[in-house]
Amino acid sequence: MTENQPPADSDNPDAISEQAMTWFVRLRAESVAVDERRQFQIWHQADPAHREAYAEIVAFWEDADFHTTLDAATLSPPMLRCSTPSNSPRRRFGIASGAKPLLAAAASLVIAAIVYQPALSCWQADYCTAVGEIKTVQLSDGSHVTLNSGTALNVNMRNGLRHIQLARGEAFFEVQHDPQHPFQVDGRYSNTRVLGTRFVVREDADSDIVSVVSGVVEVSRNRQNPATLKANDSIAVDARHQSEVSHQSTGNATAWLKGSASFDNAPLKAVIAEIGRYRRGSLIIRNQALQDLKVSGRFDIRDTDKTLESLQQTLPIRIYRLTPWLVVIV
């Protein structure tokens, strides 16, 4: 399998759709090779479901509404329900015939967000999860790692090492105690070193956040001047520095382990960003004035549509589904 080739086939319709989108994006790249085109033809002919999924991506891309400008958008009723024929691309992708949805500027953003970040990370990782998937794996030393949605990590347990590279996302570690072999997790910016404990490492856009549930860990940047964290301590590490250690309950940091996301007076933009981690595609707050609306509560990350509906019922916002992969909040 080449580096840019989609993963192995699956009967799961979501997996097939993701493969189709991966091929669609890859075949439009300047660097696409003859062998990759041949591999696409093999995939395309292997199953009628593959051909149907790819045809839908092409129809979505070529739909005239997709190429209207964002400023010219005329939105259909909230939580869009259209009445066009079932065999129409507009029906299949939830685009109302009278709408002028925003889609030109968002085209590359939507497809890239669905395809490239999680898919490329998975192809290069020892363990990974798809968007919306949470799973636990046991390592050879008896430690357990629970990977959150869209997470990828590499493991090196050879020659006495216990080393994890968090390539993307968030993971909860339950480390088997072994004084002779410290357990180390490297994020984008952070280095966490432990003997035996339970903690979370999360990669955000601009920093790593380490939160300790029990035990003691050392966290540093570039392995210099480590800070010691105990139960309910957290620290953020970015490209330039590490924060002071904060002490508060790790309940919010570990809520995803029980299928929920918990917020305490958080801005709507942070809530939407978190919900977006558990669904394919993009959630966009078009009305900038809404971004700082405060949100508190616990929401189900296993059903993000239900969570969005709950937010619409409790906040002065309206939610529009333009496609299965693009939701706009105004």
From TrEMBL:
Q: Domain FecR N-terminal spans what residues?
A: 18-58
Domain FecR protein intervals: 126-218
Q: One Pfam annotation, family name?
A: FecR
Tell me the PANTHER family matching this sequence. Answer: PERIPLASMIC SIGNAL SENSOR AND SIGMA FACTOR ACTIVATOR FECR-RELATED, PROTEIN FECR
What is the protein name for this chain?
A: FecR domain-containing protein
Q: Which organism is it from?
A: Methylomonas fluvii
